[in-house]
Amino acid sequence: MHRDIAEVLFSAEAINTRVQALGRQISNDLAGREAVVVALLKGSVLFFSDLIRSIDAPVKVDFAWASSYGHSTSSSGQIHLKVFPEEDLKGRTVVVVDDILDTGRTLDTVVRRLKEEHGAGEVRTCVLLDKMARRVVPIRADYSGFPVDDVFVVGYGLDFADRYRNLPYIGVLKPECQRP
Ligand code: XMP
After folding, report:
1. What is the pLDDT along the chain (180 residues), one digit of tens a residue?
2. What is the DSSP string of 64-91?
3. 3-class DSSP state for residue 174?
4. Which one from 98, 102, 130, 159 is the annotated catalytic residue?
5. How far is the CA of 75 from the centre of ligand 1 (A)?
6. How many Å is the Cα radius of gyration of the chain?
7. How far apart are alpha carbons 40 and 99 in whole angstroms?
8. Which of 24, 82, 108, 140 is most buried, with most CB under 10 Å away?
9. Which domain holds residue 83?
10. How far is CA 111 from CA 108, 138, 139, in A?
11. CATH number of the domain that 86 lies in?
């Protein structure tokens, strides 16, 4: 285990099992319809790449980048949308994939803008982790991997100051390592 990690919450094996199940659930719901699966950069990229391989339905992939954290562990409340999907989303079924649902501001903003500005039809949301205790905006993910307590987690795409994304598991970052 990496020396900056206090505790492993979800092993690579546990993540893989849960991601496969989420892929089956999404495949069943899509029932053969084509969806555009949109990864929110950067945190969801590992989850996204495993998830799309577990979806048994035609998909197109695209990316969006919404950021609020900078190099801190607490949300500023400001969501900056830096990159939006290239794909024509008008009337399409879209599945937005994010690493973690925290206050809900990011996903809420992205879903709203995909509908209002890009004309997306049905927009579903899929997150690997759900920190329900910190919700500020009343949003629920349509697909959710694991509930997680109010602790700062890294690994499997999740970062602190862009570090630790490459860890194959998800763990709690030691408090003394939560400095820029
Ligand atoms: P909101 O508050 O908008 O936040 O739902 C979603 C984004 O916040 C980041 N986030 C975390 N990143 N460990 C991380 O590495 C965490 O524990 C954590 N909590 C929130 C993340 O970028 C997510 O997309």
Report:
1. 899 999 999 999 999 999 999 999 999 999 989 999 999 999 999 999 999 999 999 999 999 999 775 545 555 567 878 888 888 999 999 999 999 999 999 999 999 999 999 999 999 999 999 999 999 999 999 999 999 999 999 999 999 999 999 999 999 999 999 887
2. EEEE--TTSSS--S--EEEE---S--BT
3. coil
4. 102
5. 8
6. 16
7. 8
8. 108
9. 13-71+78-149
10. 5, 13, 10
11. 3.40.50.2020
Distance 21 CA to ligand 1 centre (A): 23
Report which of 87, 89, 90, 70 is spatially closest to residue 78, judged by C-alpha positions. Answer: 70
Looking at the domain assignment, is residue 1 inside a domain? no
Residue 178 lies in a domain: no
Which residue type does 32 have?
G
* Residue 12 parent element (H or E): helix 12-30
* 102 given a catalytic annotation: yes
Tokens of 108: 């809420």
| Total of domains in the chain | 1
pTM of the model: 0.94
